[in-house]
Amino acid sequence: MRTxxxxxxxxxxxxxxxxxxxxxxxxxxxxRLLIEEYSNPGDTVLDVFAGLGTVxxxxxxxxxxxxxIELDVNRFNFIRENLVTKGNIIHGNARKIDDYNLPKADLxxxxxxxxxxxxxxxxxxxxxxxxxxxxxxxxLSGIFKKLNGFLNPDAYVILEVSNLKGEEITPLAWDIxxxxxKVLHFKGEIVVGWEGPDYGRGVFGYGYDHSYCLVFRKF
Length: 219
Prior knowledge:
Blueprint: E1 4-8, H1 17-20, H2 28-38, E2 44-47, H3 54-61, E3 65-70, H4 73-82, E4 89-91, E5 105-110, H5 133-147, E6 151-161, H6 172-180, E7 185-195, E8 210-217
Parallel strand pairs: 1-7, 2-3, 2-5, 3-4, 5-6
Antiparallel strand pairs: 6-8, 7-8
Helix pairs in contact: 2-3, 5-6
């Protein structure tokens, strides 16, 4: 697969108004491209931060078996209402992946909740309790370390991430790459340039017109 691609920033599925203010979903065109490249029909595709279910919906439409974990109950309910395989979405916390009866995955495609270096709440926790960036990175690394036990031998793990531009730049993509590389084998990155309207935050968001897909394999 090419290491630099350009895609339209277009989200196809309609979502309820309650989710529209924080619509940071995957673009379906990227999900289709990655699922086509890194899996086969009948394979199991897992998203441990399912969000509004884009990976699951696209995987199901492409003849893959989707599984997901979602922390927010409202988003979980939205996915469950719209997924054919309704029992394959779990209302839970990715940090507790060992507690769930998940099959081994052939592809993990996900985007973790982002955190700025200066933030003091934990986006991986249900109560948004106080936290620190270093703890957040440790928790992410721990999740993907556990994930090794849920991967088939030839499985890929792909994370879409971005750096975060504000008064200070948070090198989130670089930091996640470094930390997850301690527990999974880093195979490289795909830079995705996004075309579409810029509302002052970059076409992708967070101050950027591009994102990164970090590609890993099981150790």
